[in-house]
């Protein structure tokens, strides 16, 4: 089967690479010519474990190629049967989803398709967007004097950055919004590598809503636990104990109950905002979603507030930061809590020595060059001579460091752990002033 995938970000490239693995001929399209050249050169412009190796294997075996236009991809060789739209839908200034890239992709399809086609929207889009995509494709076809001859499918993605290949190949479920039995059968054929019980067929609007509802629930659990952590600190409870007790309740379960310094990334922030926006536009005031976002935005300031409380005047202080990406196993820094911390520290005239195993260049690109911000390629170099260490991302490399060495390298034995990585007893034994999220503080070493 010939497939075209428009968009080569996390979703598009993972989709194309994985479907090529099963023998399909896949053309991945991106209008960014430099990105396409990078991919043709065998390099992936973001970090995702395993994807570069799988991509190059598919290219070498002739199943995967890259193009700079949908027209080129749809017109080349055999007729494409399925076209995935996987372009980004970032937040517009008002919080709504920016659909300009989706419209561009849809119109490109309408200008280029040559025969019957299944148009599959994997981008995260507001409910009802499939109708707009259908209209955009149809308008371009009519300009060419052709009658629409395509079917719509909504197939939202549920890929976790850092585990995207596994999530595509071994998903909990595949949500498929279809408008006809024919579309359902063709999607069932495309996903034949999965047990049919994992395929959830439904109407298109419900499929579009399922993505937002899922992400909003996960974001809600994170913000709820951060709210509980903030209460725990004030009443003398330990959020880790509270989390374990909650997770044993079968009605709640243990997932996404970890307190921390807030969520970031390309999905939760924009999807919560977009869901809030189109809910409001439909006449419903989403009180919980507003609270989820408010709690998360406030939580991103917690580490800075702890540092300011215990260091006092931050001017001329040096703070080491471990972790720049919004989560481990990815180089994605979009809305990363570490970036909020860096900017707050710089505004307070502190110096920053930052380390991350994968996201230094992405951070430099996002924040620009700042006097007083140094990027370190060794985690211990980042700590050397600092007045405090802030842990912002739970990379494996930070889980079992030489903490005695860290203590000796710090001017003051102060660590603010935004991810609750370390044992309270161990940090007390090693003589740290240790502040975490929702747990008792260990103080006295630096006094």
Description:
This protein is of the alpha/beta class. It folds into three domains: 201 residues, NAD(P)-binding Rossmann-like Domain (Rossmann fold, 3-Layer(aba) Sandwich); 87 residues, N-(1-d-carboxylethyl)-l-norvaline Dehydrogenase, domain 2; 136 residues, Rossmann fold. The protein is built from 18 helices and 14 strands. The strands form two sheets. It has an eight-stranded mixed sheet, with helices on both faces. Strand 4, helix 5 and strand 5 form a beta-alpha-beta unit. The radius of gyration is 24 Å and the shape is elongated. The termini are far apart. The model has no long low-confidence stretch (mean pLDDT 97).
Name a few traits of the molecule.
447 residues; Rossmann fold; N-(1-d-carboxylethyl)-l-norvaline Dehydrogenase, domain 2; eight-stranded mixed beta sheet; 18 helices; 14 strands
């Amino acid at each position: 089967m010939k497939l075209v995938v428009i968009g080569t970000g996390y979703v598009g490239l993972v989709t194309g690479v994985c479907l090529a693995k099963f023998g399909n001929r896949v053309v991945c399209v991106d209008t960014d010519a430099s990105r396409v050249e990078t991919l043709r050169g065998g390099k992936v412009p973001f970090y995702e474990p395993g994807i570069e190796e799988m991509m190059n294997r598919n290219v070498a075996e002739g199943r995967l190629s890259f193009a700079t236009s949908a027209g080129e991809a749809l017109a080349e060789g055999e007729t494409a049967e399925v076209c995935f739209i996987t372009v980004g839908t970032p937040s517009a200034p008002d919080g709504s989803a920016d659909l300009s890239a989706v419209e561009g992709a849809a119109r490109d399809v309408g200008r280029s398709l040559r025969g019957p086609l299944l148009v599959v929207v994997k981008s995260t889009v507001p409910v009802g967007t499939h109708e707009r995509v259908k209209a955009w494709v149809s308008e371009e076809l009519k300009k060419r004097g052709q009658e629409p001859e395509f079917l719509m499918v909504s197939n939202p993605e549920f890929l976790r950055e850092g585990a995207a290949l596994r999530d595509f190949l071994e998903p909990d479920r595949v949500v498929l919004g279809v408008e006809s039995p024919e579309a359902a059968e063709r999607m069932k054929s495309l996903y034949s590598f999965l047990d049919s019980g994992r395929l959830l067929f439904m109407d298109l609007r419900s499929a579009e809503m399922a993505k937002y509802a899922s992400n909003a629930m996960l974001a809600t659990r994170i913000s709820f636990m951060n709210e509980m952590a903030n209460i725990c600190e004030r009443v003398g409870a330990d959020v880790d104990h509270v989390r374990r007790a909650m997770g044993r309740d079968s009605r709640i379960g243990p997932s996404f109950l970890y307190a921390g310094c807030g969520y970031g990334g390309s999905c939760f922030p924009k999807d919560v905002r977009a869901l809030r926006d189109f809910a409001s536009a439909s006449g419903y005031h989403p009180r919980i979603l507003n609270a989820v976002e408010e709690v998360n935005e406030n939580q991103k300031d917690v580490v800075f507030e702890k540092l300011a409380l215990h260091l006092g005047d931050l001017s001329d202080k040096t703070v080491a930061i471990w972790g720049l990406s919004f989560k481990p196993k990815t180089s994605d820094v979009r809305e990363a809590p570490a970036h909020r911390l860096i900017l707050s520290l710089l505004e307070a005239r502190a110096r920053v020595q930052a380390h991350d195993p994968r996201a230094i260049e992405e951070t430099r690109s996002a924040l620009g060059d700042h006097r007083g911000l140094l990027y370190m390629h060794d985690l211990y170099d980042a700590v050397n001579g600092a007045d405090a260490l802030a842990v912002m991302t739970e990379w494996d490399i930070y889980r079992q460091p030489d903490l005695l060495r860290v203590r000796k390298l710090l001017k003051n034995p102060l660590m603010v752990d935004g991810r609750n990585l370390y044992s309270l007893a161990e940090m007390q034994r090693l003589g740290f002033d240790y502040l975490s999220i929702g747990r008792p503080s260990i103080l006295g070493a630096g006094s």
